[in-house]
Amino acid sequence: MTKNQDFKDHIHHWLLSNKDDGIDLLRKLVQAKSIQGNEAEAQTIVIEEITRMGMNVDVWQPDKSELVKSKYFASNRSDFSGSPNVIGVLKGQGKGRSIILNGHIDVVPAGDREQWHVEPYSASIIDGKMYGRGVTDMKGGNVALLLAIQAIQALNIKLKGDVIFESVIEEESGGTGTLAAILKGYKADAALIPEPTNMKIFPKQQGSIWFRLTVKGRSAHGGTRYEGVSAIEKSMLVMEHIKLLEQKRNKRINDPLYKSIPIPIPINIGKINGGDWPSSVCDSVIIEGRLGISPEETMEAAKNEMENWLKDISKLDSWFSDYPIKLEWFGARWVPGSIDNDHPLVALIQKNYQSVLNENPIIEASPWGTDGGLLTEAGCTPSIIFGPGVTEKAHFPNEYIELDRVFEAAEIIALTLIDWCEIYTDNN
Questions:
Q1: Catalytic site residues?
Q2: Per the structure, how many domains does the chain have?
Q3: pTM above 0.90, yes or no
Q4: pLDDT, tens digit, for every residue of 173-213?
């Protein structure tokens, strides 16, 4: 095999011949309920698979005492027992570009079972789709990575550059697993993360951070509520003020990659809690939410803008001069990341997408945060997001993936690995 078409045909046929095995691997991973703190069973399946593939395997539980030294660390867990990180390295022959293939193994909880048409961890297959929590976000993408590597191995293709497969924990709450891998020294010339993009290519990833606001009022009897100041009513002013900030921040964005995204960097209010007695005027409301961060701005700049904006609310209502809003940054955060649209890896994925699917791919910016920001910023590893999962079904009831997409993605990724890492021959 010396021509690209030869590689394409052989990889395509190998994937077709091994489709049942790939589906079976995905089924096992989905049936392993790998919510936060319970990733070990799924990771054991990964360890067995990459060991069988002959990769150099590295397994460890992240050490919080080391992680807290990094400004990028964000997790409320006291330790990571039962949550191993797993990495497999396919060593190259030398003098080629290396690549990280990064996928998270953790999944969000299934939520209300009554909203599911199937059992959330059944991995049921209906009309060419596999259903289950985590199948699209992002175990289907992880299996596509493994299939791509296996296809290359089966065809006895030797690569010059290293391929580093990462099955990491804690992406859903801020990226602990990827950060731990970076701190352990895993870096490369580029990275590919198969998050659920609907087969779109994302060179840019939005960042985000959680915030908590405490809005004060003055308590009084409900029968004489006019003697008090309702924190609930004041919190409504605060939320309207935040909506104006969201509008201001999004007006600044003039990037064509966001043209199909209605709100590129949303500010989401996700939780409100206030009051302790129906017959009393509420004297305190706590609002929790998520601040979206542009790929082109730093997390600190976004935080500073919101802090200053909230201070300005006293110009609209003098109550906030005496009782300013308390702002806290807490919990999860995702680092924004961006690489040039004409980065060589973007071009290669684009080329191989066209070759496999006979159409042009869509290139957009990610509507949510990923571990790509950490890899790009903290790991100095330019990262691209491209995967087979269904964007609209991530975190939703009846999450599913189209199985054909998993194998199409695997074929595109395999060809991209060959192009990026380059083929080693005896003449090299």
A1: 106, 171
A2: 2
A3: yes
A4: 889 999 999 999 999 999 999 999 999 999 999 999 999 99
